[in-house]
Design goal:
165 residues, mainly alpha
């Protein structure tokens, strides 16, 4: 066991030579690929960090853009609702106006029809009264007026003197 704790001079020389050969071989063949892999990994990590920062800034700007678009949409919705309310009020007002005009026109037409019917009834009553008066006068007077045309002319003249409303 003592041999392991105190190495001999030959062991130290051969171990040192083996170590130096190993270092030369590693430096010549392995050191450059290892350093290239480490540098490449470092670059990828830096690029990933930059991409994450860029994404964070973009998300921040998109969030602001989203809020701005949302505000625009709300304003547009409010404007459309106000326009719709105005249009509704105008349509209702026009409909009321048209209904009032139509009712007035119908009422005026009805009044004219009533007036025309009344005038027709009055004329018919006058004619019936004249006919009745002629018949009564004919019976009362008998043959006083021989000519029918003279009798009707006399009755009409008397009826015109009497105003019927």
């Amino acid at each position: 066991m003592k041999e392991l704790i105190q190495p001999s001079l030959g062991l130290i020389v051969w171990t040192s030579v083996s170590f130096l050969i190993l270092m030369v071989v590693l430096r010549k063949y392995a050191w450059k690929p290892i350093l290239d892999a480490v540098d490449e990994r470092d670059q990828k990590i830096s690029q990933a960090i930059q991409a994450a920062e860029e994404a964070r800034r973009e998300v921040g700007s998109l969030s602001g853009e989203r809020e701005r678009l949302l505000a625009e949409v709300k304003d547009e919705r409010d404007r459309i609702m106000a326009d719709a309310a105005k249009t509704r009020d105008i349509i209702v007002s026009e409909a009321k106006h048209k209904a009032t005009d139509e009712a007035s026109r119908i009422l005026e037409t009805a009044r004219e029809a009533i007036h025309n019917e009344r005038m027709a009834a009055v004329t018919e009553v006058r004619n019936m009264a004249a006919k009745l008066a002629i018949d009564v006068a004919e019976k009362v007077l008998g043959n006083h007026f021989a000519d029918q045309a003279k009798q009707e002319e006399f009755v009409r003249a008397e009826m015109d003197k009497i105003k019927l409303n």
